[in-house]
Amino acid sequence: MTTAPQQYKKLLPAISGETRPFWEACKRGELLIQRCAKCGKYQFYPRGFCSHCWAAEPPQWVKASGKGKVYTFTITYQNRSPGYAEEVPYVLALVELEEGVRMFTNIVDCKPQDVHIGMPVEVVFRKATEEVTIPYFRPAKP
Amino acid sequence: MDLRRAAAIVGVYEHPTRYAPDKSEQLIIAESIIGALNDAGLEKKDVDALFVAAMPPGITGYGLCDYLNLYPRWVDSTNVGGGSFEFHLSHALTAIAAGRIQCAVIAYGSTARSGGVAVGTGGATRWGQARIAPVPDSFEDIYGTTTVGLYAMVAQRHMHEYGTKPEQLAEIAVTMRYHASMNPHAMYRDPITVEDVLTSRMISSPLHLLDCCVISDGGGAVVVASPSLARSAKKKPVWVLGVGESIAHQGGGWRDLMEMAAYQSAPQAFRMAGVTHQDVDMCMIYDSFTITVLMTFENLGFCKRGEGGAFVSGGRLRIDGEMPTNPDGGGLSSNHPGMRGIFLLIEATKQLRGDYAGTPRQVHARRNRSEPPSIALCHGTGGALGSRHSGGTVILGRD
């Protein structure tokens, strides 16, 4: 018995009801974050409620500008997990979006050694499978 | 209720193994519990509570009671990573003070090394087949997070904000190795230099191989008793003066990464204990990575935020320095079987009792160099600084 080679070896997100709008938006090339109608605060990662004020009504989905700055990062030289092991060295980063929230990501489309804290970055989407598209960040075009 | 001295550590045991391919995790736990009861001069029949945490896919409270053939009246398998055992001591103190139990055992055992668990660099698959949760793992692990990477991101930010130097981190590793040279059970005992740390392989920038803890097998146990039972135990009691617990996390995407859980747990412990930082003779600080130690001192309040680099420099953490820290060699050189918090309590207890008296490994009291330390502070960190972690602070004192 033969099976087709798995193209995407890295971990895929598990998608649930409360996170589905985020992942559906990624497929359209949009980065969504959430804003609470009651307290007005943004949150990331997405949740089915506001984690700041615990308002009963679910937070609103808002399209983020997709621009931000590198808050911190590390160049990963060792990861034994399939998919990542083959890609070292890669940049794991926390990016602070213009809206204020921070999200984990990889900085792509540049040399790892060129990444620095405060570097302006912009979102870029890459299709992992038919169902999943993942947001990454690259150096912002001037 | 005043919980100060409401319970005492009366027995401890550190399993000497660093490699145990022929033992189960449960057997390491059982041998550790038996060793700690022997140290206390107590027996199985005295034990009425079991506190345990283990690595996934793990050991459960009820499963371990079965293995030990124990019928406790209190079971707690709180698992907040490597700092779980400081939480256990806090919970045991409360249970004893409430009169629900008289004698608790806190235990840990692991075969992380012989089992080939890539604790720091395995990424999401470090415990075997990855199981990714919709939140928050799906927004973190997909990008190739590793334990060391999550600490490295915090180290990078600390260097950016405060000018902390790799040499300052390296001095922590050098100090721990110096201490390990005096510990016959330590995994690595050959001295290293700052240069050795800085030229060791980069694992996740800015953390080098020698900025990272070892991976060993091992385990240990602690016996906690009520004051009345403690007075009849074989060894001098080591009193629980203060405890504090906390969790820190991403905070909806807004967290200040420089603020550790220790920032919240330390004031609780100091307030309960009624002591100040100046009263502390020694520290046992969870040293998963060098940055963990540096930032823990800041967040415990031993120095201001950003001054950790200077604080750990100049030999201050050496056994003969101003704040002797991890005289057993710590996780950086002695042992780190996945979760290390139990060993903080064990070593602090031995030092307070003066178990190493007459040897270079014995820490001395700040005020009287011919005496063992009076007050020891233990701080366990579990999880990962960059995403979410626990902090358990324990302050111990002798009679």
What does this 3D model show about the protein?
The complex is a heterodimer of chains A (142) and B (399). By secondary structure, chain A is mostly beta strands. Helices cover 6% and strands 35% of the residues of chain A. Chain A has 1 helix and 8 strands, in the order αββββββββ. Chain A has a 5-stranded antiparallel sheet with strand order 6-5-4-7-8. A 3-stranded antiparallel sheet of chain A has the order 2-1-3. The longest helix of chain A has 8 residues, at 20-27. With 399 residues, chain B is an alpha/beta fold. Chain B contains 12 helices and 11 strands. Chain B has helices spanning 25-40, 61-68, 84-97, 147-162, 166-180, 194-199, 227-232, 262-273, 290-300, 308-311, 330-334, 341-353, and strands spanning 8-14, 49-52, 74-76, 103-110, 202-204, 207-208, 218-225, 238-248, 282-285, 375-383, 389-398. In chain B, the strands form 2 sheets. Chain B has a 9-stranded mixed sheet, sandwiched between helices. Chain B has a two-stranded antiparallel sheet with strand order 5-6. In chain B, helix 5 (166-180) crosses helix 9 (290-300) and helix 8 (262-273) crosses helix 9. Chain B is globular. The two termini of chain B are 21 Å apart. The mean pLDDT of chain B is 96. Chains A and B meet through strand 2, strand 4, strand 5 and strand 6 of A and helix 4 and strand 5 of B.
SSE layout and pairing:
The complex is a heterodimer of chains A (about 140) and B (about 400).
Chain A: H1 20-27, E1 32-35, E2 42-43, E3 60-63, E4 67-76, E5 90-97, E6 102-107, E7 120-127, E8 133-139
Chain B: E1 8-14, H1 25-40, E2 49-52, H2 61-68, E3 74-76, H3 84-97, E4 103-110, H4 147-162, H5 166-180, H6 194-199, E5 202-204, E6 207-208, E7 218-225, H7 227-232, E8 238-248, H8 262-273, E9 282-285, H9 290-300, H10 308-311, H11 330-334, H12 341-353, E10 375-383, E11 389-398
Parallel strand pairs in B: 2-3, 2-4, 9-10
Antiparallel strand pairs in B: 1-7, 1-8, 4-7, 5-6, 8-11, 10-11
